[in-house]
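User:
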Amino acid sequence: MTEARDIGQAAEARACAWLQQQGLSLLESNYHCRAGELDLIMLEGRTLVFVEVRSRRNAVFGSAAESVTASKQRKLLTAARHYLQYHEQHAGKAQRFDVIAITNGDMEWIKNAFGAG
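Assistant: Predicted structure:
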């Protein structure tokens, strides 16, 4: 396993634990499909929350949040649609896309970071 993959997994684990402390429930992590990967799929009340976790050691090339480009957002939206096709029990729930951005070890939770529109 590469160092970058280890760092990414550690960031996802940290973000997941923190979100659970905030009251969210983990449904699935690292959901893979042809469109890409959803880092965390969580439930906050009756809202299905797709969480993208991004980590950067420093902000020299931009913050972790800035690394969620329009192209990445489209892939996440497509992956979320795929997830909902195969998990129909969640299809009627409100949905939200959040980003957990970790830059220099500082974590920022961006709720409703982007949407389907």
